[in-house]
Specification:
Number of strands: 47
Distance between the termini: 57 Å
Strand content: over 45%
Shape: globular
CATH architecture: Beta Barrel
Amino acid sequence: MSIGHHHKRSSSTPWRLLSLSVAISAALASPVWAQDADSEDEEKETTRLENLSVTARRVEETVQDVPVSVSAFSDDDLRNLQAENLDSLQGAVPNLNIAQGRGSASSVNVFIRGIGQPDALQTFDPGVGIYVDDVYISRIQGSLFNLFDIERLEVLRGPQGTLYGKNSTGGAIKIVTKQPSDVAEGAAEVTFGNYGRAEGKFYLSGPLGGGWSASVSGLVTRLEGFVEDPLTGRDFNDDDSNAFRLKLRNQVSDNFSLTLSADYTHQQNEVSLGRPEATLISVDLADNSIVPLLPAPAEGSEFNYFARTSFGPDQDQELDHWGVSLLADWDINDQWTMKSITAYRELDTDFFIDIDASEFELGDVFVGLDQEQFSQELQFHYDNGSNFRSVIGLYYLTEDVPSTQRAFADDLLRLGDIPIDFLRTIDDDLETDSYAAFVNANWNFAPNWTLSAGIRYSYDEKTYQRSTSTFSNTLPPLEGTFAFEDDDDWDAITPSFALEYQLNNDALLYASANRGYKSGGFNGRANSASDVGAFDPEFVWTYEVGAKLTWLDGRLVTNWSAFHSDYKDFQARVAEDISSFPVINAASLDINGIELEASALLDTGTIISAQVGYLDAEYDEFFDFRFPGQDRSDQVVPFSPDWTLRLAAVHTFYLPNGGGLTIGADANWRDDLFLSVDNQESLTQDAYWVFNAFARYETPDRHWQFSAGVRNLDNEVYKTDAQEFSSVGNIQTAYYGDPRTYYLSARYSF
């Protein structure tokens, strides 16, 4: 049965589950909410759900007061999600697809409402912006952040630009780390689990005197790996990470403060392996015949987490990622404030990536990256104290990304019985300068009515240099050097509009229209003159209506949204032959969807929650030069499951000794999806469930917490990402989610 038929047939499942959930709980929910407690009896007097504050519009507002599709998570929410890394958000946000990137221990593949960018090559810009303390992270490589000292995390769905540093088409993920405290506080935690997991975390914060305060946090993780070589016992897909963050804050005066932040992450991991899903082949140039090397897995067989590689033990994945930033806040007067965000970051990688995930050299590459970025953002906020506020911003980003790459393919070609050694070397450099100016205003023009409007001008200028040489032992015609330099620039005007109506204190209705833009670029895999040339930017208009409703004196919350996106000039990397991988503006898409987040407080100790996302993503047109005259618009958009669903429950038992025992469980359901632009049947994932559970005991003095948890309780085997280079050895490699993991942890806080 084709995945398309399965797609349609299975789409009724969420409706049945949704109806059942409503009948049982009278609410669907999101993990945005935590309990709000009375100071006299912190747990037992809980009477309503907490309304978490966010800065989705660059000012502090509660989730229920902002006319934006945003999911927010506090530190406690992330603990209940058992979230260790950014990809732990999978399932927790409607229409979000987030996973560890293909073949990399540190990159993240993010799609929001069907829009993203899965290729970690530096010549692509991300489709979803990731920010750490308002600093834009320009590479998806190195963006699989550990979540170890988080104040909150926000996921904004839909185009961003008139309020955020860099324009993005899909949305934004904001990581906000803890600010230094004026009182001494801290925590330390140790965790042990299966697959050799051993982890330590700490956080310390407090005043230094003279208006200064500081915080320092750290994380050390050791994990032996989920994938094993069945012959040697060597482990892959491990985690050997160290991360640290230091913050210094100086309240210079009543109206001026400075916050200096520095962070550093080091990883030294084995290669990340998936499974070849199609027969791997070599080509005999003597007669152009196909020589099978490794058969495809048996139909219907599950990945057993065994894999092999051609790389030796000293060929692994090493990463150093660090940055510093300075935030200045100045209250100029009662109406005007200014914020300056200055940041510098470096990302250095030495990565061996086995694209074919086998002991053969078909698609084995080394990527050494040395990225530097500097950004400066200025924001001027105005508030007249009654019915009008605005933000005016200027943004600048400069980035330099030189890289050295090597492609090894000694098993790809033969000449009769003679194997052909094949090596391609690449040295390239991408330089980018990005400028933007934006303004956004909110006008409360009538009782309960507010109009928001914004506009942004973006200008991007890029220069790309590439030199590639090919070396072969028996075929001089394959050898040679190709080099080129190209530059281009693009600009765009992207407006945004929103109209909101505050029906009463518990009901907000809104409608919005936003335009997003992602700059063009160059083919970072160009090996001949035919592949040289810039591809165009992407644009998207998203139209949305929504309602944020609070019921039953704050015990029930339901947030709804429906949207339509008109997505143009989709940037697609395709494969033509063994050395040609052009990037084309292949398609336009129509994307429609519905999202629901809600929560219900059933009693003083029980919260149930769920998220539902429906996505209808279709190509309006899809023309590919490889298939002249053929419209591929009947194919399925990758990374865009029709349905996503999460149901969760958390209950706290208040013990006679004053302690508390909290138990929680959640179930995530994801519809069928394709993992490649070319819709390879082998790179599909049928609908699946993932179940998680935890228990946590807190001592009466609130200093100690002891936790136990399990993720992927029923050990579901499922694909999360894929490599598709079918023109090279028939490479179709799938990467898989983690198997069942469990842990015990102890945490001390003061």
